[in-house]
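quick one before i forget lol
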Amino acid sequence: MEIFGFIASIAIGVSLGLIGGGGSILTVPVLVYLFSVDAVLATAYSLFIVGLTSAVGSVSYFQKGLVNVKTAIVFGIPSIIAVFATRAWIVPAIPKEVFHVGEFVVTKSLLMMLLFAILMIAASYSMIKKDKPKAGAEEPHEQKFNYPLILIEGGIVGVLTGLVGAGGGFLIIPALVVLSRLPMKEAVGTSLAIIAAKSLIGLFGEGSETIIDWMFLAKVSAFAIAGIFIGSALSKKIDGAKLKPAFGWFVLVMGIYIILKETMFK
């Protein structure tokens, strides 16, 4: 299963390089089902893997001038604080047995996987739906920040990232386009920079009782990063936008599978 895990790790990076995101949503299921990592620990591991791969993926966007640093700071600060606080206080405060429904026990690990599955289903919708082209969408606009909404959105994304370890690009990119009026390509590059910062810094909120296998993380991250370069090379020959809906359907099926597996087929 570990061999399939490393192959899947490459696929995560390929997705990031090819369609600009989405791959990180598969990181926790890969860690849990292919590497047999505990669900709670997997969310912490995912922060490192997602953060590092996003950082590498953002380099080319920086080089092309497609990262809006001011936006990344304004959106990123509340998001980073929320991730750190979630890992430091909220996750440790969740009891091992959350509640009972008859004889069915919802444990902390089960709750994490169910939250993650719901997030996967929500993310799949954003990938499957067809975006209607807007006139002048790629033209530069005078940037105006809706600070209250950006702070709220950043905080919500940060809490979700802290709980389930996903990057949350499917929430960040639309927010940057609507609330900060960024062109789509710049929104993708800025999103990667935000994801990298909040995931890596948020990991420092992890309690000292969490034992992290850094060698294992380095191996998985190396395969994911290799996938980024493969995906970036493929993106010159394949239109990633056309593959995005198909990947969305795959994520939807995976989300439903996780819910069924964790609740009905345990």
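fyi The longest strand covers residues 97-101.
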